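Why should sequence recovery work at all? Because a backbone constrains its sequence more than one might expect. Tight turns favour small or flexible residues, buried strands favour hydrophobic ones, and helices have their own preferences. The token representation captures these environments compactly. In the example below, the structure is given first.
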């Protein structure tokens, strides 16, 4: 019986996860098909129940469902439980396990880029499920200061409170602000790492802020991977800053998810090649 996997989101048409995962499945001779599932928030609970079918191995979860999916699962991994966000669902004998491979995926992407976040001053844009994963990864890496900016202050403050309960929180100063707070310019001028975890940038020209205050030696990361260079990254590159898009994080988290579903080591080189080939 051909097994099924897929990625769920709303929208989902931009996702290249099917190309990455199908290439890995084919490379290892696993009889499975990886799909895109466009599921509106109102349909999420029914969709989760459909994953209990005997032909389903699991799913990836992306915007806007990473937090909303949590109550519908039977069990959470320690990482997913601590941050309240899931990006991978594993089907095991009728039970659904929620995991989060974004945390380790982001950490691996920074190390691969040659950036050691230990002691860094970080500005993090966004406070959703992806921001939670990135923040936990940075906390675990021992950043010196983590400053959260979000359009809604309450959500940024909620994320800051959640981070206070994470391992390593005592070594990191965490602050939360609304995106329009006057403190933004000063923190941008001091940062060594700027990370955008919002969906702003999916469309040409979209950007949350100007990078004029970001030091030229900083690393600017946008976890969006399609388009490969968002307006934020283009502006940062023009300023002389180092840039990193979301493709390495995507592939590394995908490889970790693949291992959870199949119990086999992911063919990382195959997955990176497929990801690059799938981009415009």
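From this structural description, the recovered sequence reads:
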């Amino acid at each position: 019986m051909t097994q099924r996997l897929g990625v769920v989101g709303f929208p989902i048409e931009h996702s290249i996860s099917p190309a990455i995962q199908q290439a890995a499945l084919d490379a290892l001779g696993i009889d499975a098909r990886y799909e895109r599932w466009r599921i509106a928030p109102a349909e999420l609970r029914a969709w989760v129940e459909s994953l209990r079918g005997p032909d389903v191995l699991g799913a990836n979860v992306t915007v806007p469902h990473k937090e909303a999916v949590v109550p519908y699962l039977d069990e959470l991994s320690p990482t997913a439980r601590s941050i309240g966000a899931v990006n991978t669902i594993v089907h095991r004998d009728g039970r659904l396990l929620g995991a989060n491979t974004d945390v380790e995926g982001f950490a691996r992407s920074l190390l691969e880029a040659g950036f050691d976040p230990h002691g860094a001053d970080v500005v993090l844009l966004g406070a959703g499920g992806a921001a939670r994963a990135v923040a936990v990864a940075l906390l675990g890496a021992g950043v010196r200061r983590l400053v959260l900016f979000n359009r809604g202050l309450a959500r940024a403050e909620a994320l800051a409170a959640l981070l206070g309960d994470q391992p390593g929180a005592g070594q990191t100063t965490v602050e939360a602000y609304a995106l329009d707070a006057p403190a933004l310019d000063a923190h941008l001028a001091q940062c060594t790492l700027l990370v955008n975890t919002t969906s702003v940038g999916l469309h040409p020209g979209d950007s949350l802020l100007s990078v004029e205050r970001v030091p030229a030696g900083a690393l600017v990361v946008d976890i969006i991977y399609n388009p490969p260079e968002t307006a934020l990254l283009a502006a940062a590159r023009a300023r002389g800053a180092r840039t990193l898009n979301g493709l390495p994080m995507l592939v590394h988290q995908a490889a970790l998810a693949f291992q959870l579903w199949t119990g086999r080591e992911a063919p990382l080189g195959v997955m990176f090649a497929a990801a690059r080939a799938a981009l415009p």
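A few observations help interpret the result. The chain has a mean pLDDT of 95.
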